[in-house]
Amino acid sequence: MQRAQEDADEDARSSGTILGSLAVAFPRTLPIMAGFLVLGISYGFLMTSRGFPVIYPLAMSALIYAGSMEFVTVDLLLSTFNPWGALMLTLMVNARHLFYGLAMLPVFRGTGRKKPYLIFGMCDETFALESSDPHPAGTDKGWYLFFVTLLNQIYWVGGATLGAVLGNLANFDTRGLDFVLTAMFLVLFLEQWRQAEARVPALIGLLVSLACLLVFGPDRFIIPSMAVILAVFILLDFRSQREAS
Questions:
Q1: Spatial separation of the C-alpha atoms in residues 205 and 201, rounded to whole Å
Q2: Other CB atoms closer than 10 Å to residue 145's CB: what's the count?
Q3: Residue 238: Cβ within 10 Å count
Q4: Is Membrane found in the keyword set (predicted)?
Q5: What are the start-end ranges of the H helices in the chain?
Q6: CB 42 within 8 Å of CB 162
Q7: d(Cα 65, Cα 83) in Å, to the nearest integer?
Q8: Which of 38, 27, 78 is nearest to 179 (CA)?
Q9: Helices 222-244 & 200-216 angle (0-180, nearest 10)
C-alpha cells in the first residue's frame, strides 16, 4: 500500500514537472508562433500557387522542416531533375545547422529518448530560444527543450497547412511572398543584437559574411562564411584561454 502511494506521488510530481515545463515553454514561443504562422501561410500559398496539392506543404513542412530550404524546394521540384545540384544547394542553404548542432550537443546531454527529436527539430528560432536559456527555473530541462521544439514545429506545420488550404480558396498575386523569410531572419538578428551583452561576435559574423559575399558571390558565400567565422571564434577562444593561463 505504501509502495503504491509512493508511486502515485512520483507520477504526480512527474506530471506536474511536465505541465510546468509546458507552461513555461508556451509563452516563450509565442513570438515565434506569430512569425511562423505568417511564414507558414505564405509558404502554403506559394506551394498552391505553383500547382501543388495541400499534401505537399503539409508533408514537406513536417518532414523537411527547414523553412528556407522549403521555399527553395518549390523551384527545385519544378526544375530539371538534378540530384547533385539539389544536394549542394541544400548543403549551402543549411550549412549553418552543422554549427548549431555542435553548439547544442552539451545542452542536449542528459535528455534521454527526447534527444533524437530535439536534433531533428532544431531550427534557427528554436536554437536562438534554447541556447539563450536551456533550463529555466521550475522546469525539467528535457521536457522544456522538447516542448519548445514541438510547439515551434506545430506552428510551422499548422501555418503551412492553413496557407495551402486558404490558397485553394483564394486567388491573388503571390510575388514577393518568399521575402518574408528574409524579413524573419532580420527581425531575429535585431532581437538578438538588442539583448546581447557582447556584440563582437555579431560584428565578426557580419563583416566575415560581407567579405565572403564580395569574394564568392551570392550563390556560394554561405559555406566559406561559416568556415571563416568558426575559425575566427576558435582563434579568439584559444587566445583568451592563453591569456587566462
A1: 6
A2: 28
A3: 10
A4: yes
A5: 2-49, 55-63, 67-78, 83-94, 96-108, 115-120, 124-132, 141-169, 179-195, 200-216, 222-244
A6: no
A7: 19
A8: 38
A9: 140
Query: Is the backbone of residue 51 left (phi > 0), alpha (psi -120 to 50) or beta?
Result: left
Instruction: Name residue 106's amino acid.
Output: P
Residue with cell 506559394: 46
| 8 Å CB contact between 125 and 188 | yes
CA distance linking residue 53 with residue 192, whole number of Å: 37
* Amino acid found at 81: F
Instruction: From residue 123, give the alpha-carbon distance in Å to each of 94, 162, 179.
Output: 10, 21, 18
**Cα-based torsion angle of the residue sequence 53, 55, 58, 62 in order, rounded to the nearest 10 degrees:** -140
Residue 70 buriedness (CB in 10 A; 0-12 / 13-18 / 19+):
buried
Residue at grid coordinates 492553413: 162
Q: Hunting for cell 553548439 — which residue is that?
A: 103
Digitized pLDDT (tens) for each residue of the chain, 245 residues in all:
444 434 433 443 455 688 888 999 999 999 899 888 988 888 888 888 888 999 999 999 999 888 778 888 888 888 888 788 778 778 777 777 877 888 888 889 888 899 999 999 998 889 888 888 888 888 889 999 999 999 999 999 999 999 999 888 876 666 666 566 666 667 667 766 777 677 788 888 889 989 999 998 887 787 788 788 878 888 887 787 777 76
